[in-house]
Amino acid sequence: MILHQALPSKFESTLEAYRALETLLADGKVRAIGVSNFMVDHLTTLLDHASVVPAVNQIEVHPYFQQRDLQALHTEHGILTQAWSPIGGITHYRDGKHSSTLQDPVIGEIAAAHGRSPAQVMLRWGVQQGRSVIPKSTKPARITENLDVFDFDLSADELAAIDALDTGQRGGPEPEVITLESFGRPIPDD
Q1: CA dist 148 to 70, 144, 145, 158, 187, Å?
Q2: pLDDT (tens digit, 9 = 90+) per residue, 132-161?
């Protein structure tokens, strides 16, 4: 079970929700608990107050936005990094800060060398570096292609070339702007 978002403006509520997840885990009602979009400061605060380390933190990770400091914190505490938008789809449908990772020449060259698609190279890059990747597609052919990344390896030089694409610029919204005031909705009782 994943707690979907640290709410910086209501972090005590976030901690209360996490404590409820810890209770569900202790009662055997769930097998694991995790978080989504917790940044270094959120995760550090959570770890200071939690009795259970989250199994996973779902975060935006793709070649153009790698969040290395956060991933290092995950490694230090045994938290799995789960990359949403691992193909970088969010980089080309928002406000135009990034071009599409699918058309990046470095990724394209690596894909051609392996006879793979750029998407497969980015998924392999994530998997090979120990991340869980959750690409989104509704097209059966792309879903099949996205699963076909376990029979080739990227070289150390290829991994380094993709690592060098990091812009440090998020494609999705900043976690700090996700507030109940901005995005909250009333939940009906019935």
Answers
A1: 28, 7, 5, 19, 40
A2: 999 988 999 999 999 999 999 999 999 999
Residue position matching structure tokens 């990046």: 104
Do 85 and 92 contact (CB within 8 A), yes or no?
no
List pLDDT tens digits, range 58-68: 999 999 999 99
Dist CA 123 CA 150 (whole Å)? 10
Residue 186 lies in a domain: no
Rounded to whole angstroms, what are the CA distances from 131 to 72, 79, 166?
A: 12, 10, 16
Strand partners, 82: 58, 132
Name every residue whose Cβ is closer than 8 Å to that of residue 45 and which is 6 or more positions away in sequence.
11, 15
Q: Which residue range forms the structural domain that includes residue 15? A: 2-181
Range of weakest confidence among 6-20, 31-45, 173-187? 173-187
Section 23-34 average pLDDT: 96
Distances (CA, A) of 136 to 49, 88, 119, 146: 33, 11, 11, 9
Residue 70 maps to which CATH number? 3.20.20.100
